Prior knowledge:
Layout: E1 97-99, E2 123-125, E3 148-153, E4 175-180, H1 185-192, E5 203-207
Parallel strand pairs: 1-2, 3-4, 4-5
Amino acid sequence: xxxxxAMYGMFYGCSSLTSLxxxxxxxxxxxxxxxMFKICSSLTSLxxxxxxxTNVTKMNGMFQSCSSLTNLxxxxxxxxxxxxxxxxxxDCSSLTSLxxxNFNTSKVTSMNxxxxxCSSLTSLxxxxxxxxxxxxxxxxxxxxxxxxxxINIMSTGTTSYSQMFTNALTDPEAxxxxxxxxxxxxxxxxxxxxxxxxxxxxxxxxxx
Length: 208
């Protein structure tokens, strides 16, 4: 696969697939991986440690509706050229933790539905996220009932954030810390307001 440049939709809809050995894949030339594993709803684990994602620009929907995945190790991923992460983990409803501390999101412009209905997700490390280019965050944490995370809001161009925390933070232990600059404080405040009145107290605004 060393000359393959596109793997979008490659396993899309393989809903009965329970295991997948990709250890021989050479993905060094691949630029688009969107919807690659979308609706692989019976996969419980996925080893992507051999993946080279240096040249990938689009990952939107990559793991969408992988609803049986209980863990996902993406520590080897290089996302420095990715621009679109819409729905990448949407409806990964069995994931309980996700470490994205190695993700470089400096070129990402859209994160719509990124963690939509990740209803079991508790620990989410977004400490490395650079949101300075992001314009879209609509439904990003929709129905993330148990989420515990911190994310910095850095772009004054973030104009889409409707339902960002709708139906989220219903678990007593759930919380979100929204970091803001002097220029993005009003945006962060508006994002907080997308949570229900009962759960807005679980969102803390913090100057950065």
